[in-house]
């Protein structure tokens, strides 16, 4: 009797000890990573507030005479607002198309059974792993032949074509965990494809909106090779291209560069801060906790 | 009897028909825009072509040249090093998410910070780090002020070994941690609490819980995330390499993907670059096959 | 019934959305195609730069005022991928009339689609400096196969800060171009706590690069440097080896790698020197890192200049690296508006427009219709050297594809010290051969 008691107490204490150790270790790791990530931002902020002379003199410390000159410089020279609206429009429209395509195809692969399913799925997955830069040249040729050069439509199509396969993969894994009974029920009712789509598939996909949204939107926002080749005019361009443009032949002095970076990242950062609580990450099995 | 049979057949073809209708947009897009660009590399790899004008057929010359090219082996080696970091990039978020499972004070704040690299994107991150880690940059300054004598030799991006490891750390670990933690946390939340209770009754400690309950419970998520990491390493590194090191010093931060870009557009040797692309193609094919295997296995269970 | 109504309703909605979207989706960026004014599409990798951009805008305004039937559609393009974009545009023969270009190998590979200006500039050919025209000609001749009209003449040289010379006890008017004098001056500067040489090598090793250009000019001369075009001059030749040793000596003696640092990001290096730090800076003649930049920083009267540090055995001690033309405008051969485009190119590289550019950026525009301020002593000196002792710039002659990798190897050898001199030379030669 006695021995059993002590053993349990021992185990309890040992558990407490290891769990505290893990807690501390986790805090340490988290802090280290956070530092690695936050310090560059901090550095960018303080550098952007210095004049180039002040930066030469002191690369590390806080600005003694903070100035917004770099920011006004960047904002005036770059058509920031235009780039911002373009990016928002492009990503917005693309995401709608992306979501539709991924949901539809994901449902087909995930829930429906038909001949050639695995073959086609392999093909789709395979075709999009290829790096963008490698195929950019030929993609440009295609877009040009279709007379879609310098149009949003061209870029949207190629973005969705390139990013949708992965989104489809995500939706496929998601849908395959959804009980078939729902679909069966609808089919017995005689529902057509269209209605299955709107009445069943999309509502079921709700938890994945967050995941798909983040992965897709970020990928498109940061995309460079295609947007550079398809959109060759200033008034069409995206934010990500903006910095590449500003650098000119020899680059930019660090204070100006960091100001440009902050201006470009400003909007995504703000959006993130606002929406971070709404970002519900669906796991592959459905229900969600932020 | 007859009626039932017929309706069953009808349902099957109906299902297939639905599937094909649903797949049409995706297939139109991918076949239309991606097939030719990807597969054209096979053709061009057998030619000498500068990107303009007519390609000249030269057989397998590009391949023999490639297999003797130091840059090729450097790239492979670098990709190997990057891949070695993947366990770290997957394991760390896993461990952290595990501890977070039961709540951690201040997690919200950390989460916001850890996810930042994904929001900023590889181009911006690469630019900032290249400035910060430059030989006359803030990190060196700080080290100098703390008292390190040889501070200005601390040029992470200037030495081959440290350059590739810095790149690996930034890209494979730092940029995965945020997303990884969130993803694994969500995955862990779906594990049935009963399993833990059952294990607790058996008297396991937290560590055993982790190994025997948590990890098997989210096995698919771990695999998925790992495959994702592989794809990123093999085919999504252009942005960060370009802004962080430009492939240098020497060939120390080249990968197949980056070399293809350099050879195509700086050296105007599209034919040669396509040979490299074909090799990359095979790596990507392997990854795609692994993805399919994973899905198939998951569906079996 | 309800189902069909639903379906039709949805279709209608989709169609309406599509139509309204397509307006913005497809119409964006398409130029007005009318019989009236001609629109010229111009690509320019300097258009988004602060100073150059403003200058170009003013030059365009001037042109359009004088040519009411032509509209200039000037687009900035990223420099880092500029030639990739040109390649794509050419291979698709897409909408492009005029474009800014370098005059080095990167451009010549694409030159088959550059319009030849020979007949168009017959009337003004005398106004362009012959060395500039040579650089812009595919066959390096001053009067034929001219495919680029030069906007800037470019050269390399060593600037020094006279103030800091005085502080170190050096005579600011005694130019230390002789190698031993140069080293001695560096030593004195170092003793006085001033960084002798400011280099900017982060990313692209411009610091080392510019020094190489200057030194090789004195060692190889015109023929030697032109030999890099076809392999007759090799990196394994004694001249390049000597130049490498000279640069290495600067590193070894700590004239470059000193505390307050000489290996920053190139633009930071410029601002460093501008703000009065450092003794020497290997810079350019035009556009950036030049007399205007530095003069605005510590006073033009304090800017000293000489062509290169000259080794005792240099065969061409007076050599001044002269790129002939740094950048210029070219016209696409397939442009539907060749007349207007050539007119524009000629306009932008001479006369009033050229003057605007020169005044704004301090670029040397190699056209005699542009008056040079004679009171600018430094500029006059540079121009004199360019005109009388010009030698080509080896970086313009070597295959463009090797350049970035070449920089990477410079970093590997000089900065991280991971390879030996023979390994370095070997690698560079290999790169060179692979890209010839």
Walk me through the topology.
The complex is a heterotrimer of chains A (290), B (301) and C (436).
Chain A: H1 2-48, H2 52-57, H3 69-77, H4 80-111, H5 117-127, H6 132-145, H7 152-175, H8 180-188, H9 193-204, H10 208-221, H11 225-230, H12 239-246, H13 254-275
Chain B: H1 2-44, E1 47-48, E2 56-57, H2 61-67, H3 70-84, H4 86-100, H5 107-114, H6 116-132, H7 138-146, H8 160-188, H9 193-201, H10 206-217, H11 219-235, H12 238-244, H13 256-266, H14 270-300
Antiparallel strand pairs in B: 1-2
Chain C: H1 2-27, E1 38-44, H2 50-66, E2 70-76, H3 82-92, E3 98-102, H4 105-108, H5 130-135, E4 149-150, E5 155-161, H6 162-167, H7 179-191, H8 206-226, H9 238-252, H10 266-274, E6 280-284, H11 291-298, E7 303-306, E8 320-322, E9 327-331, H12 338-348, H13 351-361, H14 377-389, E10 390-391, H15 394-397, H16 403-415, H17 421-435
Parallel strand pairs in C: 1-2, 1-3, 8-10
Antiparallel strand pairs in C: 3-9, 4-9, 5-6, 5-7, 5-8
Helix pairs in contact in C: 2-13, 8-9, 10-11, 16-17
Polypeptide structure, described:
The complex is a heterotrimer of chains A (290), B (301) and C (436). By secondary structure, chain A is mostly helical. Chain A folds into 2 domains: 2-57; 79-251, MetI-like fold. Chain A is built from 13 helices and no strands. In chain A, helix 3 (69-77) crosses helix 13 (254-275) and helix 4 (80-111) packs parallel to helix 7. Residues 282-290 of chain A have low confidence and may be disordered. With 301 residues, chain B is mainly α. In chain B, 76% of the residues lie in helices and 1% in strands. Chain B has 14 helices and 2 strands, in the order H-E-E-H-H-H-H-H-H-H-H-H-H-H-H-H. Chain B has helices spanning 2-44, 61-67, 70-84, 86-100, 107-114, 116-132, 138-146, 160-188, 193-201, 206-217, 219-235, 238-244, 256-266, 270-300, and strands at 47-48, 56-57. In chain B, strands 1-2 form a two-stranded antiparallel sheet. In chain B, strand 1 and strand 2 form a beta hairpin. The longest helix of chain B is centred in the N-terminal third of the chain and has 43 residues, at 2-44. With 436 residues, chain C is an alpha/beta fold. Chain C has 17 helices and 10 strands. In chain C, the strands form 2 sheets. A 5-stranded mixed sheet of chain C has the order 2-1-3-9-4. In chain C, strands 5, 6, 7, 8 and 10 form a 5-stranded mixed sheet that branches. In chain C, helix 2 runs antiparallel to helix 13 (351-361), helix 8 (206-226) runs antiparallel to helix 9 (238-252) and helix 16 runs antiparallel to helix 17. Residues 27-32 of chain C have low confidence and may be disordered. Classes of the chains: A mainly alpha (290), B mainly alpha (301), C alpha/beta (436).
């Amino acid at each position: 009797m006695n021995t059993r008691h002590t053993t349990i107490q021992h185990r309890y204490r040992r558990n407490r000890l290891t769990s505290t150790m893990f807690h501390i270790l986790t805090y340490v790791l988290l802090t280290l990573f956070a530092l690695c990530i936050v310090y560059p931002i901090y550095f960018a902020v303080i550098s952007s507030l210095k004049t180039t002379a002040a930066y030469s003199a002191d690369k590390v410390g806080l600005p003694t005479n903070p100035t917004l000159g770099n920011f006004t410089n960047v904002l005036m020279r770059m058509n920031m607002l235009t780039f911002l609206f373009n990016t928002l429009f492009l990503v917005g429209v693309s995401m709608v198309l992306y979501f539709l395509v991924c949901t539809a195809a994901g449902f087909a692969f995930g829930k429906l059974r038909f001949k050639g399913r695995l073959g086609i799925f392999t093909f789709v997955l395979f075709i999009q792993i290829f790096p963008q830069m490698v195929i950019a040249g030929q993609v440009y040729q295609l877009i040009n032949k279709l007379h879609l050069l310098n149009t949003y439509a061209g870029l949207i199509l190629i973005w969705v074509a390139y990013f949708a396969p992965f989104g489809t993969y995500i939706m496929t894994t998601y849908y395959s965990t959804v009980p078939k009974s729902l679909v069966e029920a609808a089919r017995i009712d005689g529902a057509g494809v269209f209605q299955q789509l709107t009445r069943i598939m999309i509502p079921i996909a709700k938890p994945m909106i967050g995941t798909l949204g983040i992965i897709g939107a970020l990928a498109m926002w940061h995309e460079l090779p295609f947007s550079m080749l398809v959109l060759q005019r200033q008034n069409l361009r995206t934010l990500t291209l903006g910095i590449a443009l500003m650098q000119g032949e020899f680059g930019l002095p660090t204070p100006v560069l960091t100001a440009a970076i902050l201006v470009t990242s400003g909007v995504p950062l703000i959006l993130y801060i606002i929406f971070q609580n709404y970002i519900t990450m669906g796991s592959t099995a459905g229900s969600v906790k932020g | 009897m007859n009626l039932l049979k017929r309706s069953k057949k009808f349902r099957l073809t109906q299902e297939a028909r639905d599937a094909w209708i649903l797949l049409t947009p995706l297939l139109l897009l991918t076949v239309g825009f991606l097939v030719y660009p990807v597969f054209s590399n096979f053709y061009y790899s057998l030619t000498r072509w500068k990107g303009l004008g007519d390609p000249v057929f030269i057989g397998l010359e590009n391949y023999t040249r490639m297999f003797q090219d130091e840059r090729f082996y450097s790239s492979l080696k670098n990709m190997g090093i990057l891949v070695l970091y993947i366990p770290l990039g997957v394991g760390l978020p896993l461990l952290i998410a595990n501890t977070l499972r039961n709540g951690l004070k201040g997690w919200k704040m950390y989460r916001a910070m850890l996810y930042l690299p994904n929001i900023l994107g590889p181009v911006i991150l690469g630019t900032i780090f290249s400035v910060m880690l430059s030989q006359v940059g803030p990190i060196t300054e700080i080290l100098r002020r703390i008292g390190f004598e040889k501070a200005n030799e601390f040029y992470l991006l200037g030495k081959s070994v440290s350059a590739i490891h810095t790149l690996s750390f930034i890209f494979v670990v730092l940029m995965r941690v945020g997303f990884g933690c969130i993803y694994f946390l969500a995955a862990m939340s779906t594990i049935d609490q009963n399993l833990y209770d059952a294990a607790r009754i058996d008297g396991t400690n937290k560590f055993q819980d982790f190994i025997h309950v948590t990890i098997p419970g989210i096995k698919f998520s771990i695999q998925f995330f790992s495959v994702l990491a592989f794809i990123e390493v093999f085919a999504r590194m252009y942005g960060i390499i370009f802004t962080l090191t430009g492939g240098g010093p020497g060939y120390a931060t080249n990968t197949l993907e980056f070399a293809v870009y350099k050879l195509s557009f700086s050296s105007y040797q599209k034919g040669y670059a396509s040979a490299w692309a074909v090799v990359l193609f095979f790596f990507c094919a392997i990854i795609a096959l692994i993805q399919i295997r994973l899905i198939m296995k998951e569906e079996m269970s | 019934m309800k189902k069909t109504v639903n379906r039709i309703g949805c279709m209608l909605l989709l169609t309406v959305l599509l139509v309204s979207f397509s307006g913005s989706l497809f119409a964006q960026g398409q130029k007005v195609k009318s019989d009236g004014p001609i629109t010229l599409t111009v690509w320019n990798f300097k258009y988004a730069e602060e100073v150059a951009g403003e200058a170009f805008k003013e030059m365009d305004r001037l042109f359009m005022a004088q040519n009411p039937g032509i509209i200039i559609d000037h687009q900035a393009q990223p420099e880092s991928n500029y030639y990739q974009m040109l390649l794509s545009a050419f291979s698709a023969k897409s909408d492009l009339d005029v474009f800014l270009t370098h005059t080095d190998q990167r451009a010549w590979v694409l030159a088959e689609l550059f319009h030849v200006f020979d007949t168009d500039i017959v009337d003004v050919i005398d106004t362009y400096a012959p060395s500039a025209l040579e650089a812009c000609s595919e066959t390096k001749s001053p009067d034929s196969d001219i495919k680029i009209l030069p906007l800037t003449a470019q050269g390399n040289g060593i600037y020094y800060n006279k103030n800091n010379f005085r502080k170190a006890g050096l005579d600011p008017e005694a130019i230390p171009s002789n190698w031993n004098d140069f080293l001695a001056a560096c030593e004195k500067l170092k003793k006085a706590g001033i960084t002798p040489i400011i280099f900017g090598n982060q990313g692209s090793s411009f610091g080392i690069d510019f020094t190489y250009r200057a030194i090789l000019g004195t060692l190889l001369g015109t023929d030697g440097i032109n030999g890099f075009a076809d392999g007759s001059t090799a990196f394994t030749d004694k001249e390049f080896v000597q130049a490498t040793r000279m640069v290495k000596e600067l590193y070894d003696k700590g004239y470059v790698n000193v505390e307050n640092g000489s290996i920053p990001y190139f633009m930071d290096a410029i601002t460093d020197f501008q703000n009065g730090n450092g003794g020497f800076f290997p810079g350019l003649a035009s556009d950036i890192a030049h007399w205007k930049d530095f003069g605005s920083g510590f006073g033009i009267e304090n800017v000293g200049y000489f062509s290169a540090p000259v080794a005792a055995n240099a065969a061409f001690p007076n050599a001044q690296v002269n790129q002939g033309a740094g950048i210029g405008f070219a016209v696409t051969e397939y442009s539907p508006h060749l007349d207007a485009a050539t007119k524009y190119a000629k306009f932008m590289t001479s006369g009033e427009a050229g003057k605007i550019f020169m005044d704004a950026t301090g670029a040397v525009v190699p056209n005699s219709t542009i008056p040079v301020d004679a009171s600018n002593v430094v500029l006059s000196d540079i121009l004199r050297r360019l005109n009388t002792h010009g030698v080509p710039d080896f970086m313009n002659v070597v295959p463009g594809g090797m350049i970035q990798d070449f920089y990477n190897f410079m970093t590997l050898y000089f900065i991280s010290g991971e390879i030996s001199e023979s390994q370095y030379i070997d690698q560079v030669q290999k790169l060179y051969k692979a890209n010839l």
